[in-house]
Amino acid sequence: MQLEATDVRMIGIWGMGGIGKTTIAQEVYDKMCFKYDSCCFLANIREESGRHGMNFLKEKLFSKLLREENMNIGTPDGFQKLVERRFHRMKVLIVLDDVDDSEQLEKLARTDWFVYGSRIIVTTRDKQVLATESANVYHAEALNFDESLRLFNLNAFKKKHVEAEYEELSKKAVNYAKGISLVLKVLGHRLHGKDKEIWESELEREGVHNKKVHDIIKSSYYDLEEDEKRMFLDIACFFYGQQLQVKYIDFLLKDRDYSVVAGLERLKDKAFISISQENTVSMHDIIRETAWQIAGQESIEDPRSQVRLFDPDDIYRVLTYNKGNEAIRSIVVNLLRIKQLHLKPHVFTKMSKLHFLNIYTAGTRDIRFYEPWGLYLHQGLESLPNELRYLGWAHYPLESLPSNFSAENLVELHLPYSRLKKLWQEVPVNNIRIPFNLKLTLIQAKS
User: Fold this and answer.
1) Which of 68, 176, 287, 330 could form an SS bridge with 356, CB 3.0 to 4.6 Å?
2) Where does a domain end: 111, 139, 167?
3) Is residue 79 part of a domain?
4) Angle 211-221/181-191 helices, nearest 10 degrees?
């Protein structure tokens, strides 16, 4: 806030949905409002502007600041005179909550309208909203474990300290929330006053408690451009659990029609992803869960029309009955979670747009001694889609890849503990010409 500074300042509070931006702004507003000539907390601007329009919000804001009911701004010229005549004499504190468009700032509260010492606080999920007014930006991040536990306890027990018999269950709830204040509040309120059996039952189905935060994240998702939506879902549904570099993602998702790096920056500005100083991309678990919901809703009844397949049962049905088609963009499945599956040679023939295929093992057993009971190819494999950019297949059961698979678009070929002897029947592994930028991982089963 830099209260000692005499200029007019805009302060941005930026972060993902449910992280606590509005709570922070409200706390500052409540503590500081008495120091100003006039104050206004304008809530839910994203929603209210869509419902009532910007003129309604502007009149609501100015009515509160000037303490005049049913104010009518009238013409733009009349508004300008109002600003010059009255606001230039007022030191104000304004909170603009949940702004999603820089034009909203332009129309509601510019720094040059008010007298020195005024402060305008803006909460937003989109960092770019704050660029035009050169705002000082505070990044609202997730709470640490101790902070999360205190907040959860305040809502679950109405006191700061956990009751001894609920200590482990409280820690489980806190670990699930991953520092998102809204999730902690919702879980705490839901479990308040309930006995241990109810707690255990509720925490077994954790995801149902987060509808509110999921809805908030979804509303930001629908504001993205189509290529940004595609990139977001690709990262969430296919590359989860991996430490990915920006350069690597650029190779994987490259497209002639848009810039992947620019798209990643946009996702970062919208608080969907974080990019570390080492250029590593990460995503919060709750955001990833929301992405899974969005991807799963592409088709609830028919997995064939779902673009990204990650549910083992859906994958089983599609592969067993050869129901794959060109709509499918990615498939990722843990072999330890799928039913025994006997694949036909032409199982991938119709999946011409398949970009990402990852059949992996993750569990307690040592995968070096794992028997590939999950997927069988008794009659071989006729083809793989030439659009594949990532091909991962733990315990690949054949001695070579299909001869008509060109691999020209591959960025990574990951075949750990496979039976592979030659990439293609006529070309030994040691003699293969690796495509430019291809990351090759071939760990033989006996090595």
Assistant:
1) 330
2) 139
3) yes
4) 150
Buried b (16+ CB within 10 A) or exposed e, 131-144: eebebebbebebbe
- The answer to whether 22 touches 97, Cβ cutoff 8 Å, is yes
Whether 246 and 307 share a structural domain: no
**Torsion of Cα atoms, 310 then 414 then 335 then 326, to 10°:** 40
From first to last of its 447 residues, what are the pLDDT tens digits of the chain?
888 888 899 999 999 888 999 999 999 999 999 999 999 999 999 888 888 888 888 888 988 888 887 677 665 555 666 666 777 788 999 999 999 888 898 888 888 888 889 999 999 999 999 887 678 999 999 999 999 999 999 988 887 777 788 888 899 888 888 888 888 888 888 888 888 888 888 787 655 556 778 888 888 898 899 999 999 999 998 887 666 889 889 988 887 778 999 999 999 998 898 888 888 898 888 888 899 989 888 665 565 578 899 888 888 888 888 888 888 999 998 887 877 888 899 999 999 999 999 988 765 444 555 555 567 888 999 999 999 999 998 888 888 899 888 888 888 888 888 888 887 765 555 544 444 455 655 544 433
Q: Are residues 304 and 437 in the same domain?
A: yes
Global confidence as pTM: 0.74
Residues 436 and 310 in one domain: yes
378 and 304 share one domain: yes
Return d(Cα 122, Cα 41) in angstroms, integer.
Answer: 10
Number of domains making up the chain: 4
